[in-house]
Amino acid sequence: MTDLHDQRILVLDFGGQTTQLIARRVRESGVYCEIHPWDISDQVVREFQPRGVILSGGPESVIQEGSPTIPSAVLGLDVPILGICYGMQAMVHQLGGEVQAQAAHSEFGHARVTLQDRARLFDGLQDHSSDGKAQLDVWMSHGDRVEQLPEGFTLIGTSANAPGAIIANEAAGRYGIQFHPEVTHTTQGAEILRRFVLDICQCDGLWTPDNIIDDAVARVQETVGADEVILALSGGVDSSVVAALLHKAIGKQLTCVFVDNGLLRLHEGDQVMQTFADNMGVHVIRVNAQDRFMEALAGVTDPEAKRKIIGNLFVEIFEEEAAKLKNAKWLAQGTIYPDVIESAASTSGSAHLIKSHHNVGGLPSEMRLKLVEPLRELFKDEVRTIGVDLGLPPIMVQRHPFPGPGLGVRILGEVKKEYADILREADAIFINALLRHDLYNKVSQAFTVFLPIKSVGVTGDGRRYDYVVALRAVETIDFMTARAAQLPWDFLDEVSRTICNSIPRISRVTYDISSKPPATIEWE
Ligand code: XMP
After folding, report:
1. What pLDDT shows up at residue 365?
2. How far is C-alpha 25 from the geometric centre of its chain's CA atoms?
3. Neighbours of 287 (CB within 10 A)
4. Which atom of ligand 1 lies closest to the CA of 447?
């Protein structure tokens, strides 16, 4: 059987905001790729054996002393290279061309590139035309510009502020583009990346959902053999897809532990049991630990302390259950590719702790279980796609992210069951309204926050003095930055009325319009 990973593209990261998007577009074209930092060793580059290399954008300037460079092994490989923005400038600089700082001619946002010559990567692509020349709508973000091409390169496209917007050395399969093909604002961007990996690098498009599932199933079977595996099932997308995948791979050798901590959304516990235990026949142990969590959280108001209590108690309960499963040798986890990239970045010291994220299923340190992480290579959208193919309900797979500590970080200050019950009702009204109005998939994450303060209201029956909730809906690509979604006013009005009319303990509904930064997405 062909290994899906044999034909692969190396994406070298120069610190660009959208490097992960490049990798996602490559995968969508059906080709496996990995992101590695620009300073990987020549040996790693050679061992990787890529069919092609994509150099990402980045915040620095190649003219500055000590700026990131392309590893010499990459330039020594006989495979196609596509340099994007900083990646193109680094290529020009290192191959003997010239890049100049042109602060007065910076280009950010929409721009139009005119094709001056032909190149395989662009032939036939056109959004507009001018004087018989094809033009492309692109997204630019650069200060420096290419002034002189390296030997062997020709000028293919120009924009108002980037005389070298597209350059190519067709014979060597080397291309440079000043704009960002990975963002949707570049209309033909996905097609350019598709052509690069399929036509120029000659990959076959093996990376398809069916093949990914077959490969993951085979690898799990090979790894765990006849051993038993346990999985902490949270009901979130990642652990749900791991459960479905492992069930397909090893059936009854899998036991899932589902801990109901009392901080789940409305009916969530029952839905998890129905989907997995009832419909799919997965072996799931449900632990009703609501009271234990509420007792542990009583009187605690500090957000980080709450996170730690919830995370530690989860591990404690999970260990108790695991201890009962004497034959389990493996712990399955829903680690996905962005987690792998981020933890690589944090070990290199560049990450900053803002909130400690306790992912449900964090490896209890003293448990002697080996790890199986079948989603380690996958982006979230790939996880979702294979989840649906594995038979999970689309609504479960398309769900917005839900933090490990659940409603624990959406009830400000002390967590009480009374507050959680009120919040669940309000949140269900908001989320169902988003679904009904076809807005749910237009925002990246939406939820309700419980504020333990009282406010005066007036209803037909008289005065009300009760709690406040805040609605939060954000748009984001990477959850590192976000902006409040501009939900229609009428919609917010409807949700607010429904909440106040049907939940007597709520007197007021607010909408959070803060961006991240300076706010965070969750309130705690
Ligand atoms: P913030 O609030 O930091 O959230 O802007 C960014 C994303 O992370 C999620 N989040 C968490 N996820 N455990 C998790 O598993 C946590 O403690 C946690 N805190 C925040 C948040 O929902 C958003 O998607």
Report:
1. 56
2. 13
3. 16
4. 22
